[in-house]
Write a structure and sequence with these properties.
mainly alpha, 0% strand, rod-shaped
């Protein structure tokens, strides 16, 4: 075989091989398949686990034909399937909790920004109220009146916030629902 790069050896090839085998490992017939360029998602992984024919022949009623299969092999398949199911349920729970945490974090950040802006508005309104009341009852008494009003507002906000936190549901609902279906799926029909 003649090459415009005669005498050159490809990277990783040794010169002792027969012509036409450069670039290949000894005893192989081709290059390995390329790795995927994009990461595999949990949903694609699930589809890969359960797509296509599983290689088990079925009876006329559509059930797996297990004649000639040992109980140990069947138990091994059940254990493998349960392991896969539990792994997928754990992955689902992680995704759900992560999504809820992201929403809660975004909401908390926005509430923080709104709270700071509200604080600035209320501070200047409080100074204006203090100044207006000082003409009627004096500076000291007007400051005390404004402080008492803010104490009342703070107490009401605390009680309302406590009620809202009691309504938070940290339980991943979909995961719990699908896990409740597992025992029924294991029962024979």
């Amino acid at each position: 075989m003649s090459s415009p790069y005669s005498g050159a050896t490809p990277v990783g090839a040794s010169q002792g091989y027969a012509e036409g085998t450069q670039g290949y490992a000894e005893g192989t017939q081709g290059y390995a398949e390329p790795m995927p360029t994009q990461p595999v998602t949990a949903q694609q992984n699930y589809a890969a686990d359960y797509s296509g024919d599983l290689g088990t022949p079925t009876t006329a009623s559509g059930r797996p034909d297990v004649e000639g299969t040992s109980v140990g092999q069947l138990m091994g398949e059940v254990a493998k399937d349960l392991s896969t199911l539990m792994r997928q349920e754990l992955e689902l729970a992680k995704v759900e909790v992560k999504a809820e945490a992201k929403k809660a974090g975004t909401g908390a950040g926005l509430f923080g920004a709104a709270g700071f802006a509200g604080y600035m508005v209320l501070m200047f309104l409080s100074i204006a109220l203090w100044w207006a009341l000082s003409h009627l009852v004096g500076h000291s008494w007007s400051a005390l009146i404004v402080a008492i009003l803010w104490g009342i507002v703070g107490a009401v906000a605390f009680v309302m916030g406590k009620k809202k936190f009691a309504q938070v549901n940290p339980k991943p609902e979909r995961t719990v629902e699908t896990l409740q279906q597992v025992p029924g799926a294991l029962k024979p029909n």
